[in-house]
Amino acid sequence: MAHKPGTVLVVGATGSVGRLVVTEGVRQGYETRALVRGSSRAGRLDTAASMVVGELTRAQTLAEAVAGIDAVIFTQGSSYGDAAAAEAVDYGAVKNVLQALNGRPVRIALMTAIGVTRRGGTHDWKRRSERLVRASGNAYTIVRPGWFDYNDENQLAITLLQGDTRHAGSPADGVIARHQIARVLVDSLASDAADRLTFELVAERGPAQEDLEPVFGALDKDPRGSVDGVRDQPNMPADAEPARVRADLDALGDTDQA
Ligand SMILES: NC(=O)c1ccc[n+]([C@@H]2O[C@H](COP(=O)([O-])OP(=O)(O)OC[C@H]3O[C@@H](n4cnc5c(N)ncnc54)[C@H](OP(=O)(O)O)[C@@H]3O)[C@@H](O)[C@H]2O)c1
User: Fold this and answer.
1) Where does the pLDDT of residue 6 fall: very low under 50, low under 70, confident under 90, or very high at 90 and above?
2) Helix H or strand E encompassing 92
């Protein structure tokens, strides 16, 4: 077990998964801070969490949000198919929080999606957000969930896959309960075994495991210095990325972008 971080910022805290992450963070004893765009959007958030107002698309509004945090969990998401929004929100939130942190190390858990390595407008920006996290030099866990809440009641055995090989674009790719996504994201923060992991998250028939350490520990870690997941198929060559993305990666540090 790694040192348990104290204060956790949840980005996308008002979302269908983000709300559950806030509750799970509180349940696990973290000082949980929810980033919201306005206090009117914060209804139904766990009252034991604190709230901070900021606009995840603008780094200059995030100083208060990142002040003193030990970890950040990203669950934000834009409407599927809107590439401009995906750049501003899915990718922008990661870029802007890292910028606001200004190099201060934090533990990161990032939620993207199963099938994220399949090229296409919205997914490309999620995949690029993964690259920013790997390039940042922080300890991290990248979680690519299957289809939310399509699982049966007895389908709760947490199953982690690598290589992102399921590309049907339907629940046939895998299913997972939202509350289990929240648990995996929060559990990863205090786990050395979960550091430098990229995995797809689905559920198979059976009960949920009490301890995820052996589940994390069975996976391969991403190579140090790589911007891609350990078993991902080559695609989206870094030198073919838009110039602004290459500049963002270059600004973060010394990584192998091949
Ligand atoms: N549905 C699935 O089966 C599935 C499977 C895998 C992955 N995913 C991915 O999971 C992601 C999140 O899903 P979800 O159901 O939790 O989404 P959601 O309920 O729509 O929540 C999205 C979150 O992002 C925030 N957000 C969106 N646009 C914003 C903007 N312009 N500025 C500031 N904040 C913004 C929302 O804030 P506000 O409340 O202020 O709008 C909210 O907190 C999606 O990107 C989706 O692609 C979904």
Assistant:
1) very high
2) helix 92-101
